[in-house]
Amino acid sequence: MKAKKSFGQHFLTRKDIGEKIAQSLELTDCETILEVGPGKGFLTQFLLEHQKELILVEADRDMAAYLRNSFPGMKATLVESDFLKVDLKTIVGEKPFALIGNYPYNISSQIVFKMLEYKEQIPEMAGMFQKEVAERIVAGPGSKTYGVLSVLVQAFYEGEYLFTVDKSAFQPPPKVQSGVIHLKRKENQDLGCNYKIFKKIVKSTFAQRRKMLRNTLQPFLEKEELMTDPFYQKRPEQLSVEDFVSLANKVNRLRTKIDSSPKK
Known about the structure:
36% of the residues lie in helices and 18% in strands. It is of the alpha/beta class. The protein contains eleven helices and nine strands. The strands form two sheets. The chain has a seven-stranded mixed β-sheet with strand order 4-3-2-5-6-9-7, sandwiched between helices. Strands 1-8 form a two-stranded antiparallel sheet.
């Protein structure tokens, strides 16, 4: 089987790395594992050792056929579908599951955003990304790689960068280095603010990350406060998740005040 560029396929060839990725799952809160894009089953063979319910979601029909031929009698459910398009509740139900994969680099950020849509069911996630994306997901405030993905993920998950994988560990080799991370959901999933407002503020400020908050928050807050409070001289990469939560609550209070004020 040859890798297909349209699916962003690069096949891992080192068993020790595949085993390390599979073993990075803690599996303390779920009995089900969902693997995204199993490809030739290089990671799958080690996930089977967990003896948990295993669901494989593979968009490439040729790879799905390869898996069936290579793993006859495999104790796993193979779903031929695009992970980004499938309703996960139709294949997993309401139960919790761990998410894992050597994620296709061309859709890796979208996979993370979809994970957030199902955060109530996903207590942990592990897997391999392009190194820059892996670093961005777990980056803290003050880092050049800290951005929208960092804040939205870290609002609900604790992240850890596990190790780097050299491009020579793949066939064909990608043009970039790879990184493996593990995410564990925080015990308290209540963000403490309106999530839609929180998400909008995060995206709006990072869309102009070189500008001060006093400029990017003008559509949300009163100009007098923005110009007098030194806090708004900061740029978005200097703000923690808690700072964004506070901003979301402040914006929500202002909107409520405006909505409840007498109309002339």
